[in-house]
Design a protein that fits this description.
Elements (H helix, E strand, L loop, with lengths): L11 H13 L2 H8 L3 H15 L4 E4 L2 E4 L1 H27 L4 E6 L1 H8 L3 H7 L4 E6 L13 E5 L8 E6 L2 E6 L21 E2 L11 H7 L12 E2 L2 H9 L5 E4 L4 H5 L4 E2 L5 E2 L4 E5 L9 H10 L2
Parallel strand pairs: 3-4, 3-5, 8-9
Antiparallel strand pairs: 1-2, 5-13, 6-13, 7-10, 7-11, 7-12
């Protein structure tokens, strides 16, 4: 059995041709992206297949389709390319280029940061913002992250942190769902109740049982409704009229302002853990880092 050091790797150009063809599903499209001819792309992929002694694609007049072996190999290729891209970002960070790498929980990235980002881009057009949405804990020593928009700060005792806000939840719904008048006085809800399941973090997010009890709707029990593990998907479900939602105030400001969601009750409960901006001390050496922190605080 050959040692790992003895294994000869394929040419990087051939691997890139394979990845691009896999993403586009077409040799011609891959050729356009890589500024090559379809024949050159096809030749590089065949050389890669010969090197690996496997068939990566099945070919037809409509394009190319990954074989099971090709799909398995693509997963490794994409992971390797992502590592290389992260390394390049890290090198750019060390050179002090005008860029900030923002890691964030998906809902915070899409529902809180994105709606306000135009303000930052207008004020600092010379600074690139790279946003990476993730639920995974961020290791600042192993990633290019400069900042992380996090739920709670207990996992980052060695890092710098700024408290952003503590959110609140209250019932909201699309006006298209409300075919019957909403009457808070009757203390009765006749609509599906959208649930959000955060797993182990769910203890910090009030659910319908808690809200009904706190609102003293003691005769009302939660109705069945779709359950989502992502807050952003639950908000999309409410917008689509799939039920009523205990919406987080900071994440649905735009939808409330433009009338796509309606607040059904003034009674609200706090999300019992604040959101934080987490960053290592080295981030402050980067241009615009201090300004970004101040801008974040201005949004709260």
């Amino acid at each position: 059995m050959k040692s790992l050091k003895a294994v000869r790797l394929p040419k990087l150009t051939a691997i890139l041709a394979f990845e691009t063809a896999a993403k586009t599903g077409s040799l011609a499209s891959a050729a356009v992206q890589l500024s090559l001819t379809p024949a050159a792309i096809s030749q590089q992929i065949r050389q890669l297949e010969q090197h690996l002694a496997i068939q990566l694609f099945t070919r037809s007049t409509s394009g190319v389709e990954l074989t099971p072996q090709g799909s398995a190999y693509l997963a490794y290729v994409q992971q390797a390319f992502e590592t290389l891209r992260m390394a390049q970002q890290s090198m750019a960070r060390d050179k002090g280029e005008l860029s900030l790498n923002i890691f964030a929980l998906p809902a915070l990235a899409s529902r809180w940061l994105n709606p306000n980002l135009k303000q930052w881009l207008t004020q600092y057009p010379d600074t690139d913002i790279r946003i990476h949405a993730t639920h995974a804990p961020v290791d600042f020593n192993r990633t290019a992250a400069d900042f992380y928009l996090a739920f709670g700060d207990e996992h980052y005792p060695q890092q710098e942190k700024v408290r952003l806000f503590q959110d609140w939840v209250f019932p909201v719904a699309s006006p298209e769902l409300l075919t019957r008048p909403w009457s808070e006085g009757k203390k009765q809800i006749n609509y599906p109740m959208i649930q959000v399941d955060w797993g182990k973090e769910g203890q910090f997010l009030p659910d319908w049982h808690e809200w009904l009890l706190s609102a003293k709707w003691l005769q009302c029990t939660p109705n069945r409704g779709p359950i989502y593990n992502l807050t952003s998907m639950a908000i999309d479900a409410a917008l689509a009229g799939n039920g009523i939602l205990l919406g987080q105030q900071q994440l649905i400001k735009k939808e409330l302002a433009d009338g796509r969601l309606i607040q059904l009750s003034k009674h609200q409960l706090p999300v019992t853990k604040p959101y934080y901006l987490i960053y290592p001390k080295r981030t402050l050496d980067k241009p615009r880092a201090a300004e970004f922190i101040q801008w974040m605080l201005s949004l709260c």
